[in-house]
Design a protein that fits this description.
This protein is an alpha+beta fold. It folds into two domains: about 130 residues, Helix Hairpins (Orthogonal Bundle); about 130 residues, Adenine-n6-DNA-methyltransferase TaqI, Chain A, domain 2, CATH 3.90.220. Helices cover about 45% and strands about 15% of the residues. It has ten helices and twelve strands. The strands form five sheets. Strands 4-11-8-9 form a four-stranded antiparallel sheet. Strands 1-2 form a two-stranded antiparallel ribbon. It is elongated, with a radius of gyration of 27 Å. Keywords: DNA-binding, Restriction system.
């Protein structure tokens, strides 16, 4: 019965009623027609599907593990590039910062407040600036492109002005990656901090750095709150965090290399996601074919 109901979900949804959640009454269910083969065939079909769906689920689990490993590889690539650079033969030195470790001898470390300054420029009344927000998974994006992720603001009067190249910080979720470089001019909520470079930088270097898992752990350490979901990263604490500061030309090289490497890893991840979707489709088709009699299940198919 489990396999029969799994392929009838669309039909069951169509005959259900309700607004908050769908309900199915006995009258709807008793009129529902389903195939009912002899009991020995039912047992055979169930054993066959148990075997095949387990194999498919195992294959999906392996591919999900491969995706996790590729994502871990992205973090390793990012950490190595942002703290050690691209030249493996360059002389190294101790940065003096625990979370950074050794850095190339010609690099510097600087406090965030010496690279960026916090700006609070309120927008004018009745403005039509692009409303921006920052997300843990995708960084800074226009709200209109992602309206389902949050409510539209009735007015953006007094919101902070954002310029291309600014770093936008969601104080409440910064330690979870809700921080990033803005590629847009616009406005954002006064609940966010806007950091503007005051030294020559490649903004993407710090975009990748601040959003990385190894840096997020340091940002969490500097956040304040009574519990994880109440932690806030204020600029007086964020500003004293020491970060790598390589020459700008080297920052540019690192970002070019990182983008290429990330694209290659993402291709592998996307390919695995596609394979998983195909396996899920195959599983659904197989169940449907078996319970509706489109394929004849034999004892040999169960034993094979």
């Amino acid at each position: 019965m489990y396999y029969v109901l799994s392929v009838l979900s669309e039909k069951l949804n169509s005959i259900g009623s309700g607004t908050t959640f769908l309900e199915l009454g006995s009258s709807e269910l008793k009129d529902l027609q389903i195939a009912s083969p002899p009991i020995e065939d039912k047992v055979l079909i169930a054993k066959f599907l148990d075997k095949k769906t387990t194999q498919i689920d195992d294959a999906i689990a392996i591919k999900e593990q491969q995706i996790a490993l590729l994502k871990e590889r992205k973090q390793i690539i990012t950490q190595k590039a942002l703290t050690q650079g691209l030249d493996q033969d360059v002389p190294m030195k101790d940065s003096g910062v625990d979370w950074i470790g050794a850095i190339p001898a010609h690099w510097e470390t600087k406090r965030v407040k010496n690279i960026f300054r916090m700006v609070m420029e309120p927008s004018e009344k009745n403005n039509d600036h692009e409303l921006l927000s920052v997300y843990t998974d995708i960084g800074v994006k226009p709200r209109r492109e992602l309206e389902e992720r949050g409510n539209k603001a009735s007015t953006t009067d007094g919101y902070w002005l954002v310029k291309k190249g600014d770093i936008v910080v969601n104080k409440l979720l910064a330690w979870m990656g809700a921080i990033g470089l803005s590629e847009y001019d616009g406005v954002t909520s006064p609940a966010y901090d806007i950091l503007r470079p005051q030294l020559p930088i490649n903004g993407y270097f710090y975009h990748y750095l601040f959003r990385s898992s190894f840096c997020s752990a340091e940002l969490k350490r500097h956040s304040r709150g009574i519990m994880d979901m109440r932690l806030r990263l204020y600029f007086d604490k964020f500003g004293v965090v020491e970060v790598p500061y390589p020459p700008v030309s080297e920052q540019d090289e690192i970002i070019r290399s990182l983008r290429f490497q990330m694209q290659e890893v993402d291709k592998g991840i996307n390919h695995l996601h596609l394979q998983i979707e195909k396996l899920k489709e195959y599983k659904t088709t197989l169940i449907n074919s078996a319970v509706t009699g489109k394929i004849k299940v034999t004892p040999e198919m169960v034993e094979a």
